Each structure stands twice: as C-alpha cells, then as structure tokens.
Predict the structure.
Amino acid sequence: MSTMSQSNNRTNAGQPVGPRRAQSNRTSSGSSVVSGERDSDLRDTLRTSGSSSLLNTLVETNGLVKSFREEAPPALDHLDARVPAGAITGLAGPDGAGKTTLMRLLAGLLLPTAGTIRVFGFDPTTEPEEIRARIGYMPQRFGLYEDLSVIQNLRLYAELRGVIGEEREASFERLLTFTDLKRFQERKAGALSGGMKQKLGLACALVSKPELLLLDEPSVGVDPISRRDLWKMVQGLVADGIGVVWSTAYLDEVELCDSVILLHEGKKIFDGPPKELTDRVRTRTFQLKVTNNRRKVLAEALRSPAVVDGVVQGDHIRLVLKEGSSSDGIERFADDKQLRPVAPRFEDAFVDTLGGLPKEESLVAGMMPHRQHDGGSVIEANGLTRRFGNFVATDHVTFSVKRSEIFGLLGPNGAGKSTTFKMLCGLLKPSSGTARVAGIDLRTSGSAARNRIGYMAQKFSLYGDLSVRQNLDFFSGVYGLQGERRTSAIDRMIHAFGLENYLGNPSGQLPLGFKQRLAMACALMHEPDVLFLDEPTSGVDPITRRQFWLHINGLVDKGVTVMVTTHFMDEAEYCDRIGLVYRGKLIALDTPESLKRSVQSPDLPEPTMEDTFIQIIKRFDAADGQDKTNRR
C-alpha cells in the first residue's frame, strides 16, 4: 500500500473545514508553562451546550475503499469502522498504513473510491456543508500561513469560524496561555519551532468547539510536558461529549484512548480497546539487567529467533518473545542470568502484531569505514550564545562530545535545541562563544567542517518538487560523490531505507515517515564523521524508529559521533549522555541513569525518562522563581 499520493485530490490541508457559529461568553485565567491547572479553564473556553450523547455514533464507514492509482494497492481497503461521541478513538499503524487518507475522507477533503461514509448521519460526498461546520481538523502537515504571525493566524481562523467579539479575545487569551505561545504571538508562524507550530495548529482547530475533532498526529514534535497538557485538555473536551479521532506515532498515547483502530497496508487488523491487544503479549515481555554495552547486548538479543522486539530501558533491556517460543537461553544476555517478567505495553503488542523487527544488520553502518577511537572531543560548544534581537535563544551553552558517543540534547519546544544544532553545523553564526567540530572552528573554517558533517534538519528540508531519486542524485553531487561511488551510495541508501517503491514520487508528497527516511539517507551518503540528527524519528512509527536506531548504533560502532534531539523519551535511553536545555540554558548534563537517580523520591521511586525530564524542569522553575523573589 502506498499513501504517498495522499496529496493528490488535496485541498489546502491547513484551511478550516467550515464556518462555525459564535458561542457563549467565557471567563479567563492565567497559567504557567508547567501547570496541571489548565484543563478546567480550557474546558470552559471550549464548552458549548447541546453536547452529543456518549452513546451516539458520529462516524460510520462500511467497505470503505480509497485508491489513488489503478496499478497500486488501495490506500484503504474495505474498511469498516465507527467513531462514537464522548470518546477518544486512536488511529495507529506503520508509515503508509492509510491513517491520513482516512482522516481526510472523514473531513470531506477526499472522495471515496467505493464503500460508504456517514458523518453525523450525512454523506460527505453529497452533503459536505452539513458536516464541515461541525468538524475540527488538524492536519499532519503544517498548513497554517507561515507569513502571518501567531495572533494573525488565530484571528483569521476565528473569522472563518464566526467567533467574534469578547468571546474571541477570551478564547485567544486561554489558548495562547495553554500553548505557551503568548510571548511569541507576534512571531511569524514560519519562524516557530516544530513543536510550537503544532501547538498553533491545534489552537486554530479549537478556536471554536467542534463536535468531532480529527487530530492527525497532533503531538509530533511536541515535548513531553506539552503532550501531557494536550491530553488533559482533550480529555476535558471528551467529557463534554466531543468525539475525537487521534492518529499518533506515540503508542503510549494509544493506551489513553478508549478504543484503537490499527491499520496495516490499508486494512484494519485490530479494532477495540487497547488493553485487549496488549493482553496478547502479557506472558511474553521481560526485562534483563545489563550494566555495560547495553546497545550491543540488545543487538545480539534481537538476532535470536525467539525475540520479536527489544529496547533499552535504563540499566535493563526489555524483550518481547515470539508466541510459542521458549525463553530458554535468553537469560544468558543478563548480567545476573535472570529473566524478569514485566507488564506489557501496547507498543509491545503493536510490534508483535506486525510481525516483529526484521532480523538484519545495518546496511548503512556496513558501508562506513572504521574510524579511530582516540578518546578526544569531536564536538565542542564553549559559551555558545545566539540572540535574535532582544530574544536569547541559546544562552552561554558549554559541553563537549567524544568520538563514538551518542549525545542527546533534550528540552521543551522553543528551548533552543535547534538553534544550538544549527550553530554547531555552521548554519548559524553565534552571537558569542565558539563552536568546534573535529577540531575546526566553525566561525573561521565552516566549509571545511561541513564536509565532515551529516545534518538532518527538524523540518523536512529537501526539495519537495523533486522525486526521491532526484533528491538522492542531487545531494550525492553536493557532497562530491562521483562515478561508481555515487551510484553505489545511492543504491545502498534506497535499499537501507526501503525507498524502492517511492523513487518516482515527489518527495513533498511522501508520508511523514518516508520523508524522514529520505532526509536521513541524504545526510549519510557522504559517510560523515559527525552526524547531527534534529528529531530524526518525529512522526515515525515504532518499527521504523527501531530501524533508524539500528543504523545509528551501527554507525557509532564504526566510530561516527552522533548528536541527536528527540521528544521520544524512550529513545533518550540509547544516549551515552544527555544535556537538557530549557529557556536557552543547559540546566542538566549527565548519563540517563544518573539523571533519573537525581529525581528519585518516595513518590517517584522508579522514574521514567519522561518523569525525569519533567521533574528537572519543575525544579529549575522553582529555583528560578525563588531567586527572583530573593532579588526583590
């Protein structure tokens, strides 16, 4: 199945799907960036009378088919599904499964090839105006107006939705506070970080309260704090009877849904409560204590025929065994030779249902030459500072990264991560401080350093009008590859990232996960010494994320140094060290395990990486607030 043609028949995905009448006046209240008190305010902001009954079916599809090309398998293949009011229906599946196609069909932006759709009892193909006024749709692709400011985008959507007068200003106040966009409201949307763009898109979808809210991966590129706040808000809306369809690559989010539709190659392979699927692997999930070389031990364990999935979890590795397989021999991977049963997760069942991880070595790492492990620093930031007018995006950041180290740079949206990345790649000049890569000062010899760097940007930065193959051809030439070496590098990237079926398609029309694959392929073709990955797996399904990290771990074994940002906190466990950036400052720097130990308490005896992230930021906010009080 291919959904990369989903943009065919596409109208502007960022446009509201219809007007909306004004609603009742509401009051406002303030909040902080890290706050658990916003949901009641936002519920007030978005509440209207006459919510649907919890038992109402808002959407029903029967035998739904959508094809984009006669010669290709359908994007959706005879789908039967229903979406109730007053519930969150999760939509999950690997890249290209048909999730976005289904969303656009429900929104009335595509016409079905066969089968029927009923939304609020109406047929979107013949009665679109009866539907569009009652739907809020947030597309996967950022579809707002990048040349307009944050507040101008909100005003435009309010006009189109018919939200006027005092109600409009009260709505803006609450939505800007919730999304932490108030201080950026005059900034152009195109200048926002990826996460802040997602927040703005959601705010525009919620300017008026819909009866059905379609969220196509709304949390892509959004930090853990904002994700938690987003869920609190949406759960408040659901309590008022709104039906939500939530497509996501974060499978911990699926566990919060009332039901989930799991798609694969356009077909429904599961439909029901998440726990029902999770229970299928209940006796097959285990933890093993591994103190050293966890990435290598995991790679070895995954080669076992009995293992269908595995990840690093702190000082353990977590394994899912194949149904019917014996656990005999698996305990040999543990330091203490013990295999400890653990509670299953939806993600375990997801990977198992799709057949598990492929048993393969990294083709990308296999083509890389071995580099000497000299123990020296390959990346150095010393007092790195960047100002944009009066705004300090990066504030005297100092750290170093050794060869063959995976260094994670974490932080909330707008914290300064991408700005730091761009300075270290030579794409942005520091206001003060120095950035060195492989011993080369980027201020004075940027071009020499860039030849040794691979950079994958947060925002898809390839040429959308060029095909996949044309992008690979172009970037191989930019990096100076010629002749057989060029042809061989392109062929390896195509095979390693599964791009064979997409070579002739415009890259701008690829599903998000395949865009990420192509971007990473272009960053690796010239065999760089240092790899900068700015949210490389954002919006990518778990199996593809595992494959990305297979490549990353293999590259590190060959001596490549990797610096990565991510909002998937489980991925941070793969890093040797983590730097946490907040409000432009580096507020924590240590190994994942040491950071987790730093926030342990009787109330949080075994913190996850996400817990750790949130607690460190809360501590910083509390200390900063106390400092300001003491200075008064």
User: Anything to note?
Assistant: The mean pLDDT is 84.
